[in-house]
Inverse folding.
């Protein structure tokens, strides 16, 4: 076999290795660099790839190759002649006067090569996009013949193609991984909180909330949702996302209080393989998965101070670096945050950044607690029971006549989430399709929250909330009158009606006016 036939066979094998379906560069680089050592009189051949503004050694072969060489990286700014070669995508031979200009060589401080040694670089370019360089070094003076340079350029072209294919393959794997991660998160979050759509609410506060959601949904403005635990903050975030232009993009959720502090940064911003023990592969993080869509940060008040500065940067600039990486990632993410923490007090306590608060609080939304929207209680119960019926396989479920009155009396510190839990427990305990007060067992929950009504106070029983003759307004009216009778008309202060009903005095007065209850109503003795 002739020398030309050998070269042709070697180039064909390299093409085959470069086109490998797994896009594993190691076999290609091992064979290719060994081929170069046989072809050209060099003591060191290295592949250096561009990473940000640095050239980092990816592979090295030859008598001068050692661990120091394989760990080497240089700032491209120190080598304007190499930058020119990259821009031109053409080979560059360096002679003694080139090093005398103060530029030095790639391995200064690593290899003790004599002045006048022969070196050459061939840029790796796919199209006009530079990827790095092939560098050739000889310890002694010498030249590279034209035929050898041509063959080395062919190898550089094949290597550039292999690098591009490997990069595209990695990008595809990352996109597939992100899609699977999004699917996993959507499955996990599919249940969500059961709550009532604001537009369908009988509460004026909730209808105002619906209006505010419509106002902000079409903008990229950050939203801060405030409210007690269990009021449906996650549901509001979902409505904001669904009503905006990003609705066809993902809504990704993360609970800042549910993930350990040492894992929260990598969960939010992603991690580069090898960044820490257990980081066996790159992970995109929630911000990258939410790119183009919305990221819901629940319990933002529990975010560690160490991460708040990084979050502020994303909000202001749309950029961040993953854990263990130095590559800047740019994203377009609409952030909706939620908290039941008083962030102003957290700022005073130095546990929350003031600049982050004002960046998040551009458009605040306040969610009313369940005890201030009891008009929605029948509809909420109907919705929750319908979903529980389907999930638990119980068939159609109903509330007994007196159950709604008992539900109205309860202060609901856990709001809609607690209501759902109470009803689920009652459904499990119920002997049939009708849920009774015994099934609810609110007595243990009520103990210590409010004073029990006097046995002498009569509260009218509530009908079944589905199709009953008595309205909820009438149930509430009779219950408030009974409490006012118990406290001799006192509204404010300790032992007053507002305290017993777990309501703000102003809210109680507003409801009394709505229900037609006079302040100085004459109660029966």
């Amino acid at each position: 076999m002739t020398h030309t036939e050998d070269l042709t066979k070697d180039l064909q094998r390299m093409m085959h290795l470069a086109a490998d379906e797994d896009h594993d560069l190691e076999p290609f680089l091992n064979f290719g660099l060994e081929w170069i050592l046989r072809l050209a009189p060099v003591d060191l051949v290295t592949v250096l790839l561009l990473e940000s503004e640095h050239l980092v050694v990816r592979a090295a072969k030859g008598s001068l190759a050692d661990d120091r060489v394989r760990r080497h990286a240089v700032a491209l700014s120190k080598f304007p002649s190499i930058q020119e070669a990259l821009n031109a995508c053409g080979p560059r031979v360096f002679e003694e006067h080139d090093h005398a200009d103060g530029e030095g060589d790639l391995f200064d401080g690593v290899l003790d090569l004599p002045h006048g040694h022969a070196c050459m670089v061939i840029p790796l370019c796919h199209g006009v996009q530079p990827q790095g360089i092939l560098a050739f070094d000889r310890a002694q003076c010498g030249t590279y013949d034209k035929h050898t340079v041509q063959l080395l350029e062919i190898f550089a072209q094949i290597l550039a193609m292999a690098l591009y294919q490997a990069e595209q393959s990695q990008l595809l794997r990352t996109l597939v991984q992100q899609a699977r991660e999004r699917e996993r998160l959507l499955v996990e979050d599919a249940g969500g909180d059961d709550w009532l759509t604001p537009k369908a609410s009988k509460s004026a506060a909730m209808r105002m909330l619906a209006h505010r959601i419509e106002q902000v949904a079409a903008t990229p403005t950050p939203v801060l949702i405030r409210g007690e635990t269990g009021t449906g903050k996650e549901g509001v975030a979902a409505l904001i996302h669904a009503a905006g232009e990003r609705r066809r993009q993902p809504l990704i959720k993360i609970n800042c209080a549910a993930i350990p502090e040492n894992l929260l940064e990598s969960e939010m911003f992603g991690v580069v393989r090898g960044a820490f023990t257990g980081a066996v592969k790159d992970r995109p993080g929630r911000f990258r998965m939410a790119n183009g869509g919305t990221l819901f940060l629940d319990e933002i008040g529990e975010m560690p101070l160490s991460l708040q500065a990084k979050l502020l940067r994303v909000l202001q600039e749309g950029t961040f670096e993953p854990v263990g990486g130095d590559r800047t990632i740019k994203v377009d993410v609409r952030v909706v945050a939620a908290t039941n923490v008083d962030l102003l007090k957290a700022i005073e306590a130095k546990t929350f950044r003031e600049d982050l608060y004002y960046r998040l609080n551009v458009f605040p939304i306040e969610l009313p607690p369940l005890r201030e929207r009891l008009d929605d209680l029948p509809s909420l119960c109907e919705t929750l029971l319908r979903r529980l019926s389907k999930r638990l396989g119980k068939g159609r479920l109903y509330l007994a006549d007196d159950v709604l009155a008992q539900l109205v009396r309860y202060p609901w510190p856990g709001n809609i989430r607690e209501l759902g839990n109470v009803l689920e427990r009652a459904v499990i305990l119920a002997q049939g399709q009708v849920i009774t007060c015994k099934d609810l067992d609110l007595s243990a929950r009520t103990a210590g929250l409010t004073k029990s009504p006097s046995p002498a106070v009569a509260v009218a029983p509530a009908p079944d909330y589905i199709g009953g003759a008595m309205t909820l307004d009438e149930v509430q009216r009779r219950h408030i009158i009974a409490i006012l009778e118990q406290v001799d008309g006192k509204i404010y202060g300790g032992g007053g009606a507002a305290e017993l009903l777990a309501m703000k005095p102003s809210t109680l007065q507003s409801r009394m006016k709505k229900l037609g209850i006079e302040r100085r109503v004459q109660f029966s003795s």
